[in-house]
Design a protein that fits this description.
- The protein is an alpha+beta fold.
- The chain is built from 12 helices and 15 strands.
- It has a 9-stranded mixed beta sheet with strand order 1-10-11-12-13-14-15-4-5, sandwiched between helices. A two-stranded antiparallel sheet has the order 2-3.
- A hairpin with a 2-residue loop joins strand 4 and strand 5.
- Helix 2 packs antiparallel against helix 12 and helix 3 packs parallel to helix 6.
- The longest helix is centred in the first third of the chain and has 15 residues.
- It is globular, with a radius of gyration of 20 Å.
- This is Beta-lactamase.
- It holds the Pfam family Beta-lactamase.
- InterPro entries: Beta-lactam-related, Beta-lactam/transpept-like, Diverse_Enzym_Activities.
């Protein structure tokens, strides 16, 4: 463990409930919060509609987990504010950085299978050509453990430039998508499959098929093309529809840090697996969820949002009563959030097609108690 310091568009919202098959979850079970309160599904649904109208949120997909099981799932609003096409139970959203925790789970499966060592330098598997001259020697120290705990010193995005490490790997905290992509390339190399569609096939075999997440993918496919909702610009609310031909997901690249497409009900299956400790050995779950990076009291993340550190994949917020494991996702016109608390067998998953995730989570916290 190390100790570190860190360096509208306004419109009339046509909020639509989705098909009865999905709303069925909202009608079946009372929601029990982490704080001893019981909330009727209809109360949560009405509250969410008001939040969406207040903040001009086009659409969302949400799931709540109690006692390690899905008790509430809903999809509300519209895919596109101009066409008014409704969001429904088949709608697919960008997960953005919610990609990282589920990729971490995948990487730890590779550790268990002997394809990856958490503490062996990645350089020994696959040298990275993208480091600046002054960082090349230190870059040889980077390990998978450092990647998953954001201790590599690599930048979040390199934008095609040579990367200079912010610090000697293992001695600080620097949130990095580039590091996750490096690890994805290593896993692909170890299997002789690269880091495009074949890596996604391996991910499906090891993660989404066992967890019954059939439409969650890092690679653009026909289902995503048919069911993906429009994002909405976080500044002016303009609808955007990102497709491969516009420079995203080119050539089927598996972007471990950001390219996951999913929705709340499916992603909740991953959260339930985390709560029930399914798919990995108990000692691997212990390693994944323990604190690897500690934020001191002056750390901005601790001061601003209360996060106390980072495990292997998830940020953490520790209190004497519980540990909240969490992650946000921000592709600007899509935002998402996940959290779960093992001590309470509780979890929340949220996908939105706007830049208003924080407002939605804050509003939901008024109904269910603090969720962040």
């Amino acid at each position: 463990m190390i100790t570190v310091t860190l360096k509208r568009f306004s419109f009339f919202l046509f909020t639509l409930t989705l098909f009865s098959g999905v709303n069925g979850y909202a009608q079946q079970k009372t929601i029990h919060t982490m704080y001893g309160k019981s909330v009727a599904p209809a109360e949560l649904t009405e509250g969410i509609k008001k939040i969406m109208e207040q903040y001009d949120v086009p659409g969302l997909s949400i799931a709540v987990i109690n006692d390690n099981a899905l008790v509430y799932h809903n999809a509300l609003g519209v895919s596109n504010i101009e066409t008014k096409e409704p969001v429904d139970g088949q709608s697919i959203f960008e997960g953005a950085s919610l990609s990282k925790p589920i990729f971490a789970y995948f990487a730890l499966k590779m550790v268990e299978e002997g394809k990856l060592d958490l503490d062996r330098p990645l350089y020994e598997y696959l040298p990275h050509p993208g480091f600046a001259d002054e960082s090349q020697e230190d870059a040889k120290l980077i390990t998978a453990r450092m990647v998953l705990a954001h201790q590599t010193g690599m930048p979040n995005h390199a934008f095609g430039k040579k990367m200079k490490l912010a610090f000697k790997p293992g001695t600080g905290f620097e949130y990095s998508g580039e590091a996750y992509q490096y690890l994805a390339a290593v896993i692909g190399k170890q299997h002789g499959i690269g880091f495009k569609s074949d890596l996604n096939k391996l991910f499906e075999k090891k993660v989404t098929k066992p967890l019954k997440m059939p439409h969650s993918t890092f690679i653009w496919d026909n289902y995503v093309a048919q069911h993906k909702v429009y994002g909405h610009d976080e500044e002016d609310g303009t609808p955007k529809h990102r497709v491969p031909s516009e420079g995203y997901w080119d050539d089927g690249v598996f972007s471990a840090y950001s390219s996951l497409h999913s929705e709340a009900k499916e992603y909740a299956q991953f959260v339930i697996a985390m709560l029930k400790e399914e798919g990995l050995k108990p000692e691997t779950f212990d390693e994944m969820l323990k604190e690897h990076t500690h934020f001191d009291k002056d750390n901005p993340l601790r001061k601003q949002v209360g996060q106390t550190g980072w495990g292997l994949g998830f940020a953490q917020k520790r209190t004497p009563e519980m540990t909240m494991h969490m992650h946000t996702g921000n592709n600007h016109d899509f935002q998402a959030y996940v959290m779960f608390v093992p001590e309470k067998n509780y979890g929340l998953v949220l996908f939105t097609n706007s830049g208003k995730m924080i407002q939605v989570v804050s509003g939901i916290s008024q109904i269910l108690g603090p969720q962040f």
